[in-house]
C-alpha cells in the first residue's frame, strides 16, 4: 500500500469515527497531493508524498512559532494537533545525537575547518538526513559545530 493509499484509507476511517481534526488534516494533505499531481501531470510517488508532508509539517511548525509569539495559544494548539497527525506519516525523525554524528562525518569527509565551509558540509549532510530531520535544525547544528572548531 502506497503512502497516498494509506492516507485515503485513514481518511475513510477518520470519517467513520467522526474525528474531525484528523478528517480536515487528511483532506488538506490529499488536496495538496492532488494539486501536485495536476501540476506534474502524473501520479505522486511515495517520495513526493513524503516531501509534501514535510512541507506541510514545516508550515505547521512556523505557524505554531508565530501564534505563540503573539499569544494565540488556542491557534497554536490546533496547529500542534495537525502537526502530530502529519508527523505520524513521516519517517521516524533522527535524534540530535544521530544528526551530530552524521554532521561530524560530513565535516571530516569535506575537510571543513571554519563556518565558511557551511555550504560544503550541508551539501553532504542533507541527502543523508532527507525526510528524517528538519533542515533548520541541521543548519543550526552544523553552524555550531563549525564555529567550535
UniProtKB/TrEMBL annotation:
Keywords, sorted A to Z: Coiled coil
Domain of life: Bacteria
Molecular function as annotated in GO: carbon-nitrogen ligase activity, with glutamine as amido-N-donor
Residue stretches in coiled coil: 50-84
Native organism: Thermotoga petrophila (strain ATCC BAA-489 / DSM 13996 / JCM 10882 / RKU-10) (Thermotoga naphthophila)
Record's protein name: GatB/Yqey domain protein
